[in-house]
Design brief:
- The protein contains 13 helices and 2 strands, in the order H-H-H-H-H-H-H-E-E-H-H-H-H-H-H.
- With 352 residues, it is mainly alpha-helical.
- A hairpin with a 2-residue loop joins strand 1 and strand 2.
C-alpha cells in the first residue's frame, strides 16, 4: 500500500486527510439520517447535490492548477474530470437498478434514504478494495491492461445489446434468493432496522434484503467502473477521489431526478460507446507498453498511439451531451405521440 501511495499525485499526508474527510462526511450523514429517517424535500436534495457537484468541480480545478504532473498522471486535473464524469455517468445508469430494487421490495419512501446511504458506503468499501487491487496489478503486470480493455469492450457490447430491453426484467442474484429462502424473516417493516424480535424470535427484516441486494449489486458495478477509470488515469488517488465524488451525490440524485431517469432512454447506448472507447484506449496503451513474449516478441508496439487525455475528456463530455439531448428529445416525442393516441392530435381551432 505504501508503494501505491508513493506513486500517487498526492502525498501520504494528503491521502490521510482525504480519507479522514471522507469518513467524517459519511459518519455525519449516517448519524443524521439514522436519527431521523424521512423523505427529503426537493430543496434539501438540490442543496446537497449542488454542494457535492460544486465541491467536485473545485477539487478538479485545484488539481488542474496546483497538482504536479508525474509518470502515472501527466495531467491530474483533466484526468480527474474525465474519471469523475465517467464514474458519475455509470452511477446514474446504476440508479435505474436502484429504483427497481426499491420498487421490488416496496421500500417506504421514508426509509429509502437510509437504504441508499448504506448501499453507498458498501460501494465505497468495495471500490476501495478494487482500486488497491487494480493499482497493484498495474504496478506489477503491464499485461493487465489487455484484460481491462477486453473486459470493457465486452461490457460495452453487452450493454449496447441490452440497451433497448425492459429495465424491469432485473432479477435478484443467487445470494439474495438463497438468503430469502433460508433465513428466518418477517415481512413487516421495523423502521430501518435489519433485524427485529417478533414473538421471542430474532428475524431479519425486509431492510436486510434490500441492503444485501444493494451491496451485491454495487459489487457488480465496481467490476465495470474500476477498469473504466483506470483507462483514464493510473493514479490511485485520482481513481479514489473520482469515485468518492461520483458516489457522494448519488443519494440526492436518486430523489431529485428519479422521474427524469426514465427519459434518458439512450443512456445505456452512450455508456456503451464510452466503455468501448475506453476499452480501445486501454488496448492501445497495453500494446504501447507490451511485455508479453508472444506479442511482438515481448517488445513495445511503437506504432500503437496513446490517446491523449484532452481527447478522452472531449469524447466523454460530447457523448454525454449528445446522449442527454437525444434522449430528452426522443422521450418528448414519444410522450407527445402517446398523448395524441389517447386524445387525438391537437388542432389549432383558432385558425379554422
Amino acid at each position: 500500500m505504501n508503494s501505491l501511495i508513493g506513486d500517487s499525485v498526492a502525498s501520504p499526508a494528503v491521502w490521510a486527510i482525504t480519507v479522514a474527510v471522507t469518513l467524517t462526511v459519511l459518519l455525519v450523514d449516517l448519524l443524521v439520517i439514522g436519527r431521523k429517517s424521512h423523505e427529503p424535500s426537493m430543496r434539501e436534495v438540490s442543496t446537497h447535490l449542488a454542494f457535492y457537484v460544486g465541491l467536485a468541480v473545485l477539487f478538479g480545478i485545484g488539481l488542474w492548477v496546483f497538482a504536479e504532473p508525474h509518470e502515472l498522471s501527466p495531467a491530474p486535473g483533466p484526468e480527474f474530470f474525465a474519471g469523475w464524469l465517467t464514474e458519475y455517468s455509470l452511477s446514474v445508469d446504476n440508479l435505474f437498478i436502484f429504483i427497481i430494487i426499491m420498487a421490488k421490495f416496496g421500500v417506504p419512501r421514508a426509509y429509502q434514504q437510509t437504504a441508499l446511504m448504506i448501499g453507498i458506503v458498501l460501494a465505497l468499501i468495495m471500490r476501495a478494495i478494487f482500486i488497491v487491487v487494480g493499482a497493484a496489478a498495474i504496478e506489477n503486470f503491464s499485461w493487465v491492461f489487455y484484460l481491462f480493455g477486453l473486459f470493457l469492450i465486452y461490457t460495452a457490447v453487452k450493454l449496447a445489446k441490452e440497451g433497448g430491453e425492459d429495465e424491469d426484467e432485473y432479477e435478484e442474484n443467487k445470494l439474495v434468493k438463497y438468503a430469502e429462502t433460508h433465513l428466518p424473516a418477517t415481512s413487516q417493516w421495523h423502521g430501518t432496522r435489519i433485524w427485529a424480535r417478533v414473538e421471542g424470535k430474532r428475524l431479519v427484516t425486509p431492510m436486510f434484503f434490500v441492503i444485501l441486494t444493494l451491496g451485491t449489486t454495487d459489487l457488480l458495478f465496481a467490476l465495470d467502473s474500476i477498469p473504466a477509470i483506470y483507462g483514464l488515469t493510473q493514479d490511485p488517488y485520482l481513481v479514489f477521489t473520482a469515485n468518492i465524488f461520483a458516489l457522494m451525490g448519488l443519494r440526492q440524485l436518486y430523489f431529485l431526478i428519479g422521474g427524469l431517469l426514465q427519459r434518458l432512454i439512450y443512456l445505456s447506448y452512450g455508456l456503451a460507446f464510452l466503455l468501448g472507447f475506453i476499452g480501445v484506449k486501454l488496448m492501445l496503451h497495453a500494446m504501447h507498453v507490451n511485455e508479453l513474449s508472444f506479442i511482438n516478441g515481448g517488445h513495445h508496439i511503437e506504432w500503437a498511439p496513446e490517446i491523449p487525455i484532452w481527447l478522452s475528456l472531449s469524447v466523454i463530455v460530447g457523448t454525454l451531451a449528445i446522449t442527454a439531448v437525444a434522449s430528452l428529445w426522443a422521450s418528448s416525442r414519444m410522450a407527445a405521440a402517446e398523448q395524441d393516441a389517447v386524445t387525438g392530435p391537437r388542432r389549432d381551432w383558432d385558425n379554422d
